[in-house]
Fold these 2 entries.
Entry 1:
Amino acid sequence: MAEPVIELDDISFKYNGEPALSGISFTVEAGEYDGIIGPNGSGKTTLLRIILGLLTPSSGRVRLFGKNIREFQDWPRIGYLPQRATQADVRFPVTVSEVVGQGRIAKAGLFRRFTASDAAAIQRAMELADILPLKDRVIADLSGGERQRVFIARALASEPDVLLLDEPVTGVDVASQGKFYRFLKKLNTEHGLTILFVSHDIEVLAHEATRLICINRRLVCAGPASLVFGENRNLLKELYGENVGADFRIRGG
Amino acid sequence: MVKTLEQILESGEDNMLAIFQYDFMIRAFVVGITVGVIAPVIGLFLIVKRYSLFADTLSHVSLLGVAIGLIANTQPVITAVVFAVLGAIGIDKVQERTKIFGESVLALFLSGSLAVATVLISISGGFNVNLLNFLFGSITTVEPTDLYFITALGATVLITVFLLYKELFFISYDEEAARISGLPVGVLGTILIVLAAVTVSLSIRIVGVLLIGALMVIPGITAMQFKQSFRTTMIYAIGLSVLSVILGLFLSFYVGIASGGSIVVIALILFLLAIIAR
């Protein structure tokens, strides 16, 4: 059995002295498709930033692929799709293949030119994300959905073992969202990529993810979507308060 | 045998090639083209990082270096480089460690170093022609020793960018993603600002303190009008900048105007043409 991809052990985080997260522990095993859900302000993006090493927790331990995050060096194994990908600055003069290539730079190594195998990995990432025909277009000329696929190709260019996504469908039309979710599912089932998806949209994650991790400054629940929400709707109240819509769909404010 | 500008113009040797009969003009072209290549390269990184004013700030810090160099009677280009590099690192540290807005830190260093330079110059006997040359650029002031220093450091800047092109491009485009991907973003950022400082201070002989910011920024924004890849945009910017320098130096020589002004005016005309042609 492979080592766990992400292990969080009793993570707490204080923001300006106020506790933003406390006592969060969970493990993401290889091959899982996990969704982190929680209302706005629940600390789920903070948690993701802790996992990515952008924030240091006030207490607790983070292990990535079995290594303490402080000693972890193998960042190309982690692919990341930021929330603001679709809002990328369109004034920046850059083509699709240049953006996707960024994802390969750290793997290729400092001072190194791209080798043939780097070029092949970049090409494969563009094929997988279905943007190969767009490779010489500038980012400014793309739609929100196309831009999102460019950024996921960038995340795939380092040939990661896990993909972390933060509200990645912001600014993407509904048709493209459906295509995007099918694509993630395919990456998980056919390519064995572990996925950790952060969203406030329960409906989508309950449908897509195999396991849900509910956060509201602390760990509210974790388990298969059916168990978490099937019978025990009190959990939803605990997570989101009383104003839960009948269709489970929570809109971010 | 070096003639004065008046002698040249009076002697009737005003064909286009006469300009290359004078050692000082050859030095001006060598240094001008060196600067013409590196200024837009570093400038484009600063533009896309929304940090264009950094070049202007560093140019004023390097004026302080020039003032100290003139007072100490040493090579002002060398003291300019030293002060600009120290200033760049200082700006970075102040932005990192204080809660002052980043832009205000630039204003602080820009006006602050100008103030100190003014005080030093006043104490040492006031403004003179020599200093004006550093403000607006001059083709006649490139010394033989400058030539080696400027071309050697200019080549170092260019080679560094060549080796770290992908990394500098990534941190300029998306610093957070670059950090997550495992790149040493802090070190790369420091390298970029040191390169900017060196570029600015090397440019002051030909372009001048007040106009170097323009040579770093205008060719880049002109090239961006063509909506190409980052690499192509950079190549266009270099082409536009070198063209501006060459035409500007001819203009400076034959019309007798400060080279910084003539170079930047040409760059501006190219920018307007690009806007119209688009």
Entry 2:
Amino acid sequence: MGGMPERANTNVNTAELVDNRERDLLRRVQAGEKEHFYELVKPYERRVYTAALAVLRNEAEAEDAAQEAILKALTHIRQFRAEARFSTWLIQIAVNEALMRRRKAHSEILEPIGERQEEDGNYTPRDFADWREIPSEVLERKEIRQKLAGAVAALAEKYREVFVLRDVQHLSIEETAEALGISRASVKTRLLRARLMLRDLLAPGFGGAWFGRLPFEKGNKPW
Amino acid sequence: MVVNCEHVWREISNYLDKQVDPETRVAMEAHFKECKHCTAVLDGTRNVVQLYGDDRLFELPAGFSQRLQRRLAQQTSSSRYGSARTFWMLTAAAAAALLVGGLTLGNSPVFRQPELRSEHAQPPHHIPPALMVALSTDGKVFHVPGCKYLHKRDGESPQLMTAADALKEGYVPCPRCLRQYLSVRVECPRIHPDSEVARKRGEAPSIAPGL
């Protein structure tokens, strides 16, 4: 009975420790101890990279943009103010860097899904396949991760950006709106579209097509 | 409140984010109990949010961290080198500014000292052109005839000419006997006070008696 509150307290204490460590590192780096900067950004490397990937859809480009964003963060570290979260600030720099590179490149070979969709129109889900709860273990499989990454990469950029910042990076609606320079209403509308489009893309696969060799196929589904 | 499928699809994202008002939430939940299509959409959308929110989904490319650390190290060292270089550049610029400023200030009229020139090099003023002067045989100086500072060879009379001709030939006035014609005042107590009156009259000043 008392296990849960105890665990919750432990989590809070761990979060506090992490926050305190981050604050301490920030103070030191801002004071000129730049050799500690990597310790500061290490927990957010993946998120920065994913944010850049969401915009650029090319791994090499995304890596370069993500690293450039981190270098820029180091250069401008004194401009960071504690009222924002450091991770959000870092991700915003990465999004800006990636957007800037994309504007320069103008490279859209295939028309992405949803590009021609009117933002204020209603979206009708196409597929009503039954896609009930799935075990998170499926993410251990590399091909499933590739399918998921491919699906999000296929979205039109305006939906992809909002979806990645909100559902992958866990930014709030306000933070997403600020990072992309759009309204909160646009964030909500684009997020709805992105989620429903991804569901349409993934439901047939998760509904059975991708799991022909899974051990829980043929009546052995664990759910 | 009753909601239809289209209303549910429009609000399904807000429903998952707990951003719908309580009345709409109750209405949507009632709808899900009766509509298997909308329930399938809800389950699928919830799965999308859960799957993509998992940290394992997007992996960093192999070697990303090492490459990042290398670039950070390069930037840190180059900024240090840049700081040192900036320091020396600023120091050099400050030294140059001091030098130029010092030279400018030193050359300004406020601090300029009178040039150290020979008394003999002073240009004469208002010397009567017709004034007969005696030329020194030792140096290019002309004197009032009889000046004790007139150098002449023993037994020879000094060469005489007008002051105008002497000046043309490059002679300069004696700073003692012709001091009143020099721009720089030369102390010469041996000049008789009456010489000023004589100068005004265009005559050669007289040498003080006894000199």
